[in-house]
């Protein structure tokens, strides 16, 4: 622009001199104005595209996370229905023993599942024969969809979702049901659960990371029953109408869709990400559809101001330049004496046009292909604290993050081959040493590289946060079970290639339950967070500390020389964990740690072998008095079944017989996993274990009630906790490391016998009919 300005002004040095005519001067001015306008338009368009893509990615990611979380909620409810159905006998009558047994369980299950509004068992005619809501007993619901759907097509594996319906209190509920069929496939009854949408609301609210974002959940028939944030009365709205985004999404048969336009539900121009929730393993008769959206005006406000500002600057420059050029030419025609003044004015015009490069907020620059920096606009000094002189002695490319250089070099190579403009996201070092994520646009002419960059660090951080949610524990920030197994595979593969050893350290906190009971769950969370930080500080950067759940942690040590190296780390863990932990308000607490250590390949060749060996060693530390570490026995992974010796007999025939039955089922489950008998066999044994456990707990409850056992409340509470633990283990049986869970099942059974059932047995021995079944 400066060179063009000199040419123009030179031609206007005086009347009669050779140079461009007045007409040519205006043509050159018009051309410069067009170039300036194109550059302004490109900047505004580029900013608009960046904002749109960022919002789209955020909404799609949020809908995906919500879909996974709601699918998991539905699966847990399905497991509960399957467990109840497995407890029912072939005859569904109100006085049938299995129906009475299930009826007693429904209240417990409903209280443990906060989203459940009602649980009920209906016979083949649609009459309620068991329910946690006594007012429903004996009523007929044969006319309701949640009965008619499974009755019309009684497929045992199908999870039927009926259309949402509104209660008399104005609450929208959705019902899930499963058919109960006879051996010949005929309908015997229907198992029903109605769900309060409050858990769904919590899930949808969790993915709304801005106040302007809204989220909704609709039934597959188009009936909407959840909208967040609350405040809009949209329950029951029918979205399945021609031309709606909901209808287009379902007709497209895609798991996920993205739209932009007028949303029927709120009547606003919006961006909308839709995702179908219909996990394959649930066999749902109809899907749920999640929508996460945001009003266009809410996130284009800043862009509008940006565009208006650039337009105002552009108009100001063009008007000012046109006026100056007009006045200059008129003055030159009037008197050649004013030629020098006209030349100065035109130079000023050229400077005004050139200010575009100076005033734009984007990072613009001109760089040689070899990295020599020729020109930067002032935005570099404002945003990155650099000037052109800072690159005189070094290459511009040296300020890129080393890990991003491959992508940058590939883009430059493509430009050298004559390719189109290239775009990429790469980190660039600020003067203070911090790296910022910049979205680069690169174009080349001959050996000159034209660069434009926009800081997208916040967007990258948001994407990283979403990734963090999927693979890290929310309370402690440590890797979760999924990420731990991925790293364990990588470490063992590297150890196998390099002929090295690796160690796994299982850590179970001692005394954690006492802190929870004494100070509350907030204090318990504080303990878990503190222990997590201490463990991370103790290990190397290449090692991994993960939380498997509850108060269980695991440390993966990369490349250890021997078991002694792992033992040294365990000693440091014991010292660090034992230090006092502030709990707030002047309170403090202490916990210990029981640690089990296994070494690959000394304690097993597979992932399961190493995990089971470490867990068994940890259990041995518990038995030896806790707050210690134990090394796994070399070459002994421990995949055998439950060894039920005399030490586990409580002296009550009925209880001991049921304990032996449970031990036998656990042993069969261990064998099925070890021999790879298949998923159906494994889940069959697990369902038997769950059913037998519920029956056993009901037996003990009856004995405690009959004989007035003083510790009944605590014993029943422990039963409820054990059932929840058992339910949470079921989804893990189909994942990597499932064989490791069988060792946890052994501990789950045997620890309860030693810690609670022995006490109950001692109490019952003095009763004359203590060994008989409860009446």
What is the structure about, briefly put?
The chain is α+β, with helices and mostly antiparallel strands. Helix content is 49%, strand content 20%.
The unreliable regions are 1-18
Mean pLDDT level = 82
Task: Provide the helix percentage.
Answer: 40-55%
Give a count of the beta strands, DSSP E runs of length 2 or more.
23
Report how far the terminal alpha carbons are from each other: 99 Å
What is the molecular shape? Answer: globular
Structural class of the secondary elements?
Answer: alpha+beta
- The helix tally amounts to 22
Beta-strand percentage range: 15-25%
Query: Mind telling me the C-alpha Rg?
Result: 36 Å
**For the report, how would you describe the main beta sheet?**
6 strands, antiparallel
Description:
Mean pLDDT is 82; it is low at 1-18. The chain is built from 22 helices and 23 strands. Helices cover 49% and strands 20% of the residues. The protein is of the alpha+beta class. Strand 12 (363-368) and strand 13 (373-376) form a beta hairpin. The protein is globular. Helix 20 (679-707) packs antiparallel against helix 21 and helix 21 (712-729) packs antiparallel against helix 22 (738-764).
Secondary-structure blueprint:
Layout lengths: L1 H10 L10 H66 L9 H16 L3 E8 L4 E4 L13 H8 L7 E2 L3 E2 L5 E10 L5 E9 L2 H9 L6 E7 L4 E5 L16 H7 L4 E8 L4 E10 L10 E8 H4 L1 H34 L4 H16 L1 H4 L3 E6 L4 E4 L2 H5 L21 H12 L5 E8 L5 E11 L2 E8 L1 H15 L9 H18 L2 E10 L1 H8 L1 H18 L5 E6 L2 E9 L2 H16 L2 E4 L2 E3 L2 E9 L6 H17 L4 E4 L21 H23 L3 H29 L4 H18 L8 H27 L11
Helix pairs in contact: 1-9, 2-8, 2-13, 2-20, 8-9, 15-16, 16-17, 18-22, 19-20, 19-22, 20-21, 21-22
